[in-house]
């Protein structure tokens, strides 16, 4: 049996939206959260195209971590 190497990397997902409010709707979070993630580098704008793969991973991890404290 061969050893398998697992490579973890950021998903490359791009969406087309008009503004932070629309992006919040796509990601299922508030516009303020979108702005925070943008400041942290989790979402990146290329005009109306937004790279959101890392943001989705961040939101998933935050939801999981919040569940630990419930």
Structural features, described:
- The protein is α+β, with helices and mostly antiparallel strands and 70 residues long.
- The protein has one domain (14-68).
- It is 49% helix and 13% strand.
- It is built from 3 helices and 3 strands, in the order βααββα.
- It has helices at residues 20-27, 31-40, 53-68, and strands spanning 14-16, 44-46, 49-51.
- The protein has a 3-stranded antiparallel beta sheet with strand order 1-3-2.
- α1 packs across α2.
- The longest helix has 16 residues, at 53-68.
- Residues 1-10 have low confidence and may be disordered.
Quick summary:
This protein is 49% helix and 13% strand.
Can you give keywords for this protein?
single chain; 70 residues; alpha+beta; three-stranded antiparallel beta sheet; 3 helices; 3 strands; 49% helix; globular; disordered N terminus
Layout: helices, strands, pairs:
Elements: E1 14-16, H1 20-27, H2 31-40, E2 44-46, E3 49-51, H3 53-68
Antiparallel strand pairs: 1-3, 2-3
Helix pairs in contact: 1-2
Taking all Cα atoms into account, the compactness measure Rg is 14 Å
Protein structure class: alpha+beta
Distance between the termini: 41 Å
Number of strands: 3
Let me know the average pLDDT: 81
> Low-confidence stretches at least 5 residues in length (pLDDT < 50)?
1-10
N-to-C series of helices and strands: EHHEEH
Helix content: 40-55%
């Amino acid at each position: 049996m061969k050893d398998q190497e697992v490579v973890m990397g950021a998903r490359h997902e791009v969406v087309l939206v008009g503004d932070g409010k629309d992006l919040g709707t796509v990601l299922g979070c508030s516009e303020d959260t979108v702005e925070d993630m943008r400041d942290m580098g989790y979402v990146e704008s290329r005009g109306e195209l937004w790279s959101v793969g890392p943001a989705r991973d961040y939101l998933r991890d935050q939801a999981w971590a919040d569940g630990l404290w419930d």
